[in-house]
Amino acid sequence: METKNPASAQSGGTHSKRVLLISDDKLLLKFYREKLDESNFAAVTARDPEKGKQLLTEQMPDMILLDLVFQHGDVFDFIRAVRATPGAKDLPILVLPSPLGHLANQAVQAGATRCIQQSASPVASIVDTMKAVFCMPCNVDAPDAKAFQPDDFWTDAIFANTIDAINRMRHCLPGIAETPPELPTLRDLWSLVHAFAQKAALLPYKPFAQMSASLDLLLHDLNQSPDEINPSTLRTVGQALDFLATISKPECLKRLTDTGKASLLVVDDEDGARRFITSALQMAGLKSEWAESPAHALKKLNSSQMNLIFLDVGLPGMNGFELCTKVRAIDQYKETPIVFLTGMATFQNKAKASLSGGNDFIGKPFNLPELGVKALMWLCRGQLALL
After folding, report:
1. N or C: which terminus of the chain has fewer CB atoms within 10 Å of its end residue's CB?
2. CB–CB of 291/267 below 8 Å?
3. Cα 66–70–74 angle (5° rounding)?
4. Torsion angle in degrees (nearest 10) through CA of 129, 258, 145, 12
């Protein structure tokens, strides 16, 4: 998608440093390049590590700024190749902000100088980190920090690209549903989701960015362990894409409030399972309480207001379906999202989940990001009354 911003003004000053910027998303490259230019950095761009190697030998930059995920090429091999290039042993290599902490650590081990921390203003963090490396004055807290945010032109461009990007992701689903899954297609899906999450992080809608980042983490895990792909996981990915397509417009996103302030209840009689689920929710930026029995759960629900409930099916004394029916009888929980956790994702259990008043289910075993994606989606659906 070609974009030209008529309001974009060249800095007019002398660019102090040359930056090789590498990302496989054209829109991100254009946006970052404009913001770097406004900060007096001259950026030359590449869409994959192989092209980056070529540009590195043609015109040695003062710094490399690159993403972690590419459809083609390995970022770690690229970093090691840079370190083996004459004159580039000490060249600063910065990694763009990303929720993929494990990969960021690997990048540093491969030779990257630093991974830029995620923040509410990613571009300000990028520019200030670059300036810190070059011992220049930083300005992330300066009055003009808003200049690092997307203006109306870039916001419109990102949203105009959204549905096309999600449709391209959807086209990957049949391939990853194969047995075994098509690994190149799985990689393509992850690359598309990652670029989507990078753009969502630029917008002033935190729940949108959180859900996109959690989906990015989920696809990372599935690429690392394709054998973890199962019908429940595929359902979660498909649901997330459909929901992101539904809410990807400013008038809808403006109605969402900070999901980090929501209250979640996890009902499971196994201590290990509760710890696992709590960790998954924390990873997604969510706080939760737990109950180890139906009686304990009902006591908590009657004494506080929960925005989302996770119910294990196999509970002592009363199964999850029976507990769900009792929860729905409490006036304040008639519409609260309820998600079942079950190791028996059979048709019969799915029917019982729906008939007892549940909204959704996750089949065990599940990984941490999958639970985060599901939780964020249902919290947002609850806020928008899309139950």
Report:
1. N
2. yes
3. 85
4. 80
